[in-house]
């Protein structure tokens, strides 16, 4: 897998995803997200700054330059189109599609990307509800963390499942098993350091759909009241 991963693109994509989820991009958060060492992240970020892809601001925030954002958008778009192909056409399950798309995003040519757009009929979101950059769609809502603090045990509609949750195989498998995806009504219930997710129509569906995610991942689950 290593020879298919472009480290610069991976960092650009990670910063883009943090911005998307309203998380302040910091080197420390890249360490957590990618499980890279602090020195490795610092060296890579310094190189990317020299290459004109980002700025390290005075408060340590990472800010993409125009060129950095352009490249980030390209890799995120290819990743999310790959997920659409893998799930909607090939039939790969949710727990595997994210990791596979992480490989495809670095090797997909612009020509293949264009053909995928035609084949998939210009999708606006990935299977997890995240907008495909460049398609002119914005996805609203608020994080499950904020929702559960303000309206514990209320019914909400799931809008999107962020990338950090997709990377957790057991958790994304729980979503799939419960048939909980974008557009499904759910109940959020705070349980200490966890958020319990219950399908709102659990009794009618006959599906055992109650599971928990760590509160730390709740900012990456977006819902609407």
TrEMBL record:
GO MF assignments: DNA binding; DNA-binding transcription factor activity; protein dimerization activity; transition metal ion binding
One protein family per Pfam: Fe_dep_repress
InterPro entries named in the record: DtxR_MntR_Metal-Reg (IPR050536), Fe_dep_repressor (IPR001367), Fe_dep_repressor_sf (IPR036421), FeoA_core_dom (IPR038157), HTH_DTXR (IPR022687), Iron_dep_repressor (IPR022689), Transcriptional_repressor_C (IPR008988), WH-like_DNA-bd_sf (IPR036388)
Gene Ontology annotations of biological process type: negative regulation of DNA-templated transcription
Subunit field text: Homodimer.
Family statement drawn from the similarity comment of this UniProt entry: Belongs to the DtxR/MntR family.
Protein name: Metal-dependent transcriptional regulator
Lineage, broadest ranks: Bacteria, Bacillati, Actinomycetota, Actinomycetes, Actinomycetales
